[in-house]
Amino acid sequence: MNRDGQTPLVELRDISIAFGGIKAVDHVSIDLYPGEVVGLLGHNGAGKSTLIKCLSGAYHMDAGEIRVNGEKAHIENPRDARAYNIETIYQTLALADNLDAASNLFLGREIMRNGLVDDAKMEAETRKIMGRLNPNFKKFNDPVSALSGGQRQSVAIARAVYFNARILIMDEPTAALGPHETQMVAELIQELKAQGIGIFLIEHDIHNVMKLCDRASVMKNGQLVGTVNVNEVTDDDILGMIILGKKPAHLAA
């Protein structure tokens, strides 16, 4: 499905996955375009996290197809996903608390020079990428345990972007953050969009979806209720989709 001549970054086509005979995801199709944020909503158990774990390589789908940049993708594990420039920012962030921002950014992928870790080069690269994403970030030499929630998000996002993520999966990135920190993450997302990165945002907060997303895909009982343009619906419309499992009347045709 092309839009304005653009090929989607990702096409999830007819994805199904069952656990013990229960269909967690039942023939779901969603796509994502460059520079777009698509929110994934639904009650716990609706299937949104399971669907996205097929894309991140954490789960194997039973049926369906994933296409990346128009080509069929073979994603068996998280390493395969990263090879397609798909990165996941989990709620837990998976940061090493005792290390600073640069050491976290390059954890497992350290820059070496003459057989030694090049700390100066890693810090310089970290300052460069942070300058693009979060110019207010200054705590380069503190362990990330000393950082605020929003600053930790910045480090996790910077790591993904530095290693060429084109498709970002974000799992409730503002769940534990206050208003100021939430605004910081919102600004990060706007910056990522401007760089042409596509984002799947798993989110419970409808207000955040209305503020951060271009489109919203609602799931219920493993099925896709529908995908709507955020500027064509209200909070109540989306709430109705989540609870009733139906698209709003003015979009149902």
Task: Give the secondary structure arrangement, pairings included.
Elements: E1 10-19, E2 22-32, E3 37-41, H1 48-56, E4 63-68, E5 71-72, H2 78-83, E6 86-89, H3 101-105, E7 112-113, E8 116-117, H4 119-133, H5 149-162, E9 167-171, H6 179-194, E10 198-202, H7 206-212, E11 215-220, E12 223-229, H8 235-244
Parallel strand pairs: 3-10, 3-11, 6-9, 9-10
Antiparallel strand pairs: 1-2, 1-4, 4-5, 7-8, 11-12
Helix pairs in contact: 4-5, 5-6
- CATH topology of the largest domain, by name, is Rossmann fold
Tally of DSSP β-strands: 12
Under CATH, the homologous superfamily of the largest domain reads: P-loop containing nucleotide triphosphate hydrolases
What composes the largest sheet?
A: 6 strands, mixed
Structural class: alpha/beta
CATH class of the largest domain: Alpha Beta
| Share of β-strand residues | 25-35%
The CATH architecture of the largest domain would be 3-Layer(aba) Sandwich
Distance between the termini: 19 Å
- What count of helical segments does DSSP give? 8
Query: What is the N-to-C order of secondary-structure elements (H for helix, E for strand)?
Result: EEEHEEHEHEEHHEHEHEEH
Mean pLDDT: 91
- The dominant shape is globular
Q: Note the quaternary state here.
A: single chain
Please mark out the parts with pLDDT under 50 across 5 or more consecutive residues, or reply none. Answer: none
Gyration radius (Cα, Å) is 19 Å
Strand order of the largest sheet: 6-9-10-3-11-12
Domain module tally: 2
Helix percentage range: 25-40%
